[in-house]
Write a structure and sequence with these properties.
The protein has a single domain (7-331), classed as Methylamine Dehydrogenase, Chain H, CATH 2.130.10. The chain starts with 6 loop residues before the first strand and ends with a strand. The radius of gyration is 20 Å and the shape is globular. 0% of the residues lie in helices and 57% in strands. Strands 1-28-27-26 form a 4-stranded antiparallel β-sheet, with no helix packed on it. The chain has strands spanning 7-13, 20-25, 31-35, 40-43, 50-54, 61-66, 72-76, 81-87, 91-98, 105-110, 116-120, 124-130, 137-144, 152-158, 162-167, 172-177, 183-188, 200-203, 208-212, 219-223, 229-234, 239-247, 253-264, 270-285, 291-301, 305-311, 316-321, 326-331. The chain is mostly beta strands. A hairpin with a 5-residue loop joins β20 and β21.
Length: 334
């Protein structure tokens, strides 16, 4: 098995037949994953075999969350969301099918007061609320979040005051004021944003926002005190694309990224053709908000790393990739 100063590959899960998009640790301590094979899988905590395979969508399940009431919400390329209740004996029940979006549904976020936000490739973010009579979701508000149909890929809460929305079609990062009826507050344009739903990280303690870029744009860095300020791009000289960014329990940053590297040919001259590796890199934030590279697992996957999580209970890092694999990495002691 692969060894590295940071992590050692402990186990590889090969139960999906399509590229993976998202992984999650559920409230009962189990791992879950969703993928392009239209399935969501929940794994046994001890042997990591599937406890449950949820097959309720007709297309790619590209994101899923668990609500405070422990129901799951799945987002799919079939233009729908499903609200799923987990039952005893590894069974489940679909409680509701949400069909208000008119294109691929990319992400969902739970708010306070049993409300929920969803974003899709149809120009709109939808704010949902619970109907007190039947306990089902209904549309409270539709927020127009871009001028073009394709794609509105990501939404992220910023301190419960701002809602970040990224759009690839017009290269803009928008900030909506949640308590001001979702009015557009600020935006930044001309950004080559990554299309992953896991490529944005907000660090509350430092008022710092990291946004993954694409096409050799590394990581965009913003300071978010009062008015968002663009600080600049980092690592654009060697990072080609950033598909996942997380903050670990110990305060470090992990990124799943596509790394550029150049090799010399046999004659010793530089080869102009760039090679790529899909790596997990570790960083820390310095005193002046500088992002400092620490270490990496090179070739952690064979394709885009769409998700990373820190599984504290197991002392593991879990990554998932378009290569159809879920990798469980043991965290090595220093």
């Amino acid at each position: 098995m692969s060894k590295n100063n940071m992590f050692s590959l402990s186990k590889q899960l090969n139960y999906h037949t399509g590229g993976l998009s998202h992984i999650l640790i559920l409230k009962d301590g189990r791992l879950s994953s969703s993928a392009a094979d239209n399935n969501l899988i929940i794994y046994n905590k001890n042997n990591f075999t599937p406890d449950l395979i949820i097959q309720e969508h007709s297309d790619y399940v590209n994101y899923h969350i668990q609500l405070k009431n422990e129901n799951l919400v799945t987002c799919s390329w079939d233009y729908t969301l499903k609200i799923i209740k987990l039952l005893d004996n590894n069974k489940y029940k679909v409680i509701q099918k949400l069909k208000e979006h008119k294109f691929v549904v990319n992400k969902a976020i739970e708010l306070e007061n049993e409300k929920m936000l969803t974003v899709a490739d149809d120009k709109f973010i939808i704010l949902w609320k619970k109907n007190l009579n039947n306990n089902l979701y209904e549309v409270e508000k539709k927020i127009k979040c871009s001028v073009n149909n394709y794609p509105n890929i990501n939404i992220v809460l910023i301190n419960n005051d701002l809602l970040l929305s990224s759009s690839l079609s017009d290269y803009k990062l928008r900030f909506f004021e949640i308590n001001n009826n979702f009015q557009l507050a600020f935006y930044f344009d001309n950004l080559d944003l990554c299309f992953s739903r896991n490529s944005v990280l907000y660090i509350n303690e430092k008022d710092l926002l990291l946004v993954g870029g694409i096409k050799d744009n590394g990581v965009y860095l913003f300071k978010l005190k009062k008015i968002p300020t663009f600080i600049g791009k980092i690592f654009s000289d060697w990072i080609n694309e950033v598909y996942s960014i997380i903050l670990t329990e110990d305060g470090n940053i992990l990124m799943g990224l596509k790394e550029k590297e150049k090799e010399d040919n046999k004659n010793g001259s530089e080869n102009k053709d760039e090679n790529y590796s899909y790596s997990i890199c570790k960083f820390e934030i310095g005193k002046n908000n500088e992002v400092i590279f620490l270490d990496k697992v090179k070739n952690a996957h064979k394709d885009l790393i769409n998700g990373i999580i820190h599984w504290k209970e197991k002392n593991m890092i879990v990554s998932c990739s378009k290569d159809k694999k879920v990798n469980l990495w043991k965290i090595n002691s220093k």
